[in-house]
Structures are given as C-alpha cells and as structure tokens.
Amino acid sequence: MGKWEMVRLGDVCELKSGKFMSASAIKDSHAEGLFPCYGGNGIRGYVDSFSHEGSYPLIGRQGALCGNVQYAHGRFYATEHAIVTRPKGELNTRWLCLILKAMNLNRYAVGAAQPGLTVEKLNNIPIPLPPLPAQQKIADILDRASALIEQRKAQIAKLDLLVKSQFVEMFGDPVVNTKNWPSMPLGELCKIYRGGSPRPIEQYLGGTVPWIKIGDATSGDDIYLHATKDHIIEGGIKKSRLVKAGSFIFANCGVSLGFARIITFDGCIHDGWLSFEDIDERLNKKFLLKSLNHCTDYFRATAPDGTQPNLNIGIMKSFQQILPPLDLQTQFAIFVERVEAQKTRMREGLGLMELGYKALMQKCFEGEFE
Fold first, then answer.
1. Residue partners of 31: CB distance under 8 A and separation at least 6
2. How confident is the model at residue 369 (pLDDT cuts 50, 70, 90)?
3. Which of 20, 19, 100 is nearest to 58 (CA)?
4. What phi-psi label fits residue 63: left (phi over 0), alpha (psi between -120 and 50 degrees) or beta?
5. Is beta strand 82-87 parallel, antiparallel or unpaired with respect to 13-17?
6. Which residues touch 41 (CB under 8 Å, ≥6 apart)?
7. Together in a domain, 108 and 203
8. pLDDT grade, residue 367 (50/70/90)?
9. For residue 59, what is the domain's CATH number?
C-alpha cells in the first residue's frame, strides 16, 4: 500500500450523520441570516440554522450519491443524506477530502434494496496517514492539477456558448422566427419515425447490431455519434428501428430531450429516439441539429404533462422549422465543424489531464510524495 502509516478513519476523525430538514424550511436563494444546507451532492438551498462550523468533507450516504465526497466551508447545515467528517486532531481537511474521493467509498455500502453507508462502517475503513507537511503538499499539488482541469472544462463550455451566440446572430430565435425566415412544418420537410425497444432487452443483447441508447450520446462529439456501448442480435431489429449511416436522430423524452446526433454507422434506436429521414434538400443537417438544440426549452414546455417530458411524433411533425437560405446554413455548418474540431482537440487534452490527475492521486495515496 505504500510507506504511509495506515489508520482507521474513526481513529482520526469523528463521523456524524446529518439531520433531517424539511423541504419547506429550505429557501432557494441566499439571504442574510441564512446558511448553506448540504445534502448528498452539494448545496440544496439555505436555512436559518447551522449544525456545523468549519471546513470538512461530507460523504453522501445513499442511492446514486452513496460515497460521493464534497467539501463544505464555514457555517452550514448537513441533512440526513450526508455524513460530516471532522478531524479529531491535526489533519489537513483538503487532503482528507481528496483521499476520501480516491477511495471509492460506495464499495463499503451495506443493504440490498437501497445500499447505503453507515457511520459504523466508515469508522473502520483504513486510510493512509502521511505527516501533516506531506498532507499539505499533496493537497496543494492536486488542487493545482484540479484547477487546470476545471479551466479546460470552462474553455470547452465557452466554445458551446460561442456556437449558440453565432446561431442567434445569424438566424435569430428559431421558435418565434425573429428574422421572418420562410418556415414549414417539420413533418413536410422529412419523415419522422419513433425507435423501438425489444423487451426484455436482456434477451436481445450480445449480437453485432449497434444498439443506440441516449447514454451513447451524453459525452464526446456534439454532432456525430460514432459508436455504441451495447449491441443486439439480428432478431431484435424487427422490434426496433434500424437507421442507416448518416441518419439524423433526436431524443424526444426525459432529461435528454433535445439531444440530436448524426450517426456514422447502421444501428437500431430505442424508443427514446426519433429518426428524421429523407430530409429535404433545403435543410443542412448540422444547421437542423443546432436549430432543434436551440428549441429545447420550447419542446420541454410543449411536451404533454407526465412524470417526464415526452414529445410525440405529432408535435414534432407540426413544429414550424425555419428555412434560411441554404448557403447561409452551409456557412454556419462550416463554422460549427471548425469549433467542434477545436473542442475535440481540447477534449483529448482534457482526457489526458484527467488520466494524469488519477495517476498523481494514486502516487499520493501510495506514499510516493514526501
């Protein structure tokens, strides 16, 4: 494990579960006399009392946030979804937060229906304990590396804003058509089909046909989809919808509503996707993609009420799609391609930075820094 002394977390820290705070007592905005209220993943809101004062790591207790580690400062309130980790003696709390993040604490969860972490379990987990000066040095090194990673993420986000601002400058608001472009119902400009999901899906996985899920489009290129994580057998094609390379797909439900991609391979889409086929020559696909992205808030407001927003084919067919001159669309598409190429290079660099950070953290964890 390395040269650092190993101790139990409970020997060097006092772990305390947070307390329940009713939703009605939590305010959305910060005002004088209110204190941050932390749940399992950051500030939930603000309340009129505090339960802790200082700078301490908080550990998420249950569900998807089980083992999540965050850092709280000053006077704050911790709900029952968090465990506060307070050093008993001299510990650098930034180092403590970093080392807890590196330990994948969710592997210590107990319970079947909803696995969770308990104070008793966490008290007994082993952690390395370098001398205080080494803790300080490790925290400083990793904080600097983390700051560079966040800076790169911010640069990528600014490129996304650049594309949005360029779209508005060239085409205005596509929902209200502020530049009075000609428009037509989308259903008259292409054929729209809904995907399908073979059920139970477990019986159809393991083949050679790419199975396109929303999760495949949540990272990487914002225009093209190049690969899928899962594949289905040939028998699943009849229960889904096979789309060809170059097809345009659009996520029509849930938190991913508004995602759109141009696929670069033949594959099947599940029922969270719509496929736009035989697209009119008056529409550039990349322009269409960014145009529909720009309308996400409108689509969410238009979707029928339910547990999740869900756009049916009828709504999409009736949507009035603006039709600026094709040469202007093409000019915008070229701009988007250049920005995406720059984002790809920056993402590749970000990936290397994140790998380097993990390697650096592992060295720190194993005691290779004095």
1. 46
2. low
3. 100
4. left
5. antiparallel
6. 60, 65, 68, 70
7. no
8. low
9. 3.90.220.20
